[in-house]
Amino acid sequence: MWRKLRHLLIFLLIILKEPNTPEAGCSCSTSTFCQIRPLWFTRRTPCCNCDGQNLTGIPPDLPENIAFLYLGNNKITSFPQNIPKSIGQLELENNQIRSIPPGALSCLLQLVELNLDKNGITNVKPGTFSDHKMLYTVCLSSNNITEIQTGTFSNLPELKRLFLHDNQINQIQPGAFLNLPKLWSLGLRSNRMTSIRPGTFTNLPKLEYLDLEANRLSVLPQSAHGMLPAGIRKIICFEKNPWQCDCRMRPFRLKMTGSAKFENKITCEHPAHLRGQKLKDINPEDLICKETTASTLPFDSHTSSAVSTSSSFASTESTTSPTAHPLSYR
Ligand SMILES: *[C@@H]1O[C@H](CO)[C@@H](O)[C@H](O)[C@H]1NC(C)=O
Ligand SMILES: *[C@@H]1O[C@H](CO)[C@@H](O)[C@H](O)[C@H]1NC(C)=O
């Protein structure tokens, strides 16, 4: 009992220990534990906390071999140039960074986590996040990214978590996520995607969590079914999308077997009389289109190898009325 208490006290003393060397505006620690809001204890030290110091760049006189640097809530307007090469975790959330220069990460060979949430990044150039041996987590949520181009996230053998929530992404080019053998979680919630092209989520063998909630997806063609991670432990968030339960969704519905977990996540928005019903509960024969659309084949069904020929796996015409614009082949 007393031994346990003593251990607890020692532990509390360690975590309450005053930072060792106060730097200009930052507090730095080389003790065993390092707690930096909002991150819990990190064992990567030395670490410095420069939270909300009105900094415009990397402060001078950081400890040697710094492993962890929290620079959140500052006034940094461009990606810092002189980042210590020893850095393992770099937190730059809530600054005003607009772009990441090509090659910015190429000398940061120890970097495992980069957090750029809540900046004003509009564009991530292909290659920015490529060929890095250590990167494990990349956070780019709450920026203004509109498109993810081919090769943007490629050849990252350790990348496990990639967060792109709350951007304005309306287009992900095939091959945007390329050769990411360990990618486990991919967050795309609250974006503007109307379609998912074939090749977008393929070859991600470890992907278990794909968040597509609150996008503008409305139709999934038949070919989509086999491309989505469908294992028993895999989770796809499909909620809050304007799913159109009409003839365009019928081929996909016919592919549904009840075994893929994501099948349960598609709740109809249109037509009105099916609103709120789950697609899986609707008889395929009730998935009908009126007037012009009724005579239009689902756009990827004119060929058996829809994967390689159709350029899109959800209709990009989805936001327009089905009667005004019959679906077109590309
Ligand atoms: C940052 O700047 C604001 C506005 O000039 C000021 O009110 C605040 O005290 C500054 N914070 C620090 C930590 O210097
Ligand atoms: C990012 O988007 C927000 C919301 O749409 C907008 O208010 C802001 O001005 C944009 N910032 C940049 C840098 O484009």
UniProtKB/TrEMBL annotation:
GO terms for cellular component: extracellular matrix; extracellular space. PROSITE patterns: LRR (PS51450). It comes from Branchiostoma belcheri. The keyword Coiled coil does not apply. InterPro entries: Cys-rich_flank_reg_C, Dev_Immune_Receptor, Leu-rich_rpt, Leu-rich_rpt_typical-subtyp, LRR_dom_sf. The lineage of its organism: Eukaryota, Metazoa, Chordata, Cephalochordata, Leptocardii. Residues 308-324 have a biased composition (Low complexity). The keyword Cell wall biogenesis/degradation does not apply. Residues 1-24 form the signal peptide. Keywords: Leucine-rich repeat, Repeat, Signal. This is Leucine-rich repeat transmembrane protein FLRT3-like. Pfam families: LRR_8, LRRCT. Residues 308-330 are annotated as: Disordered. Residues 241-290 form the LRRCT domain.
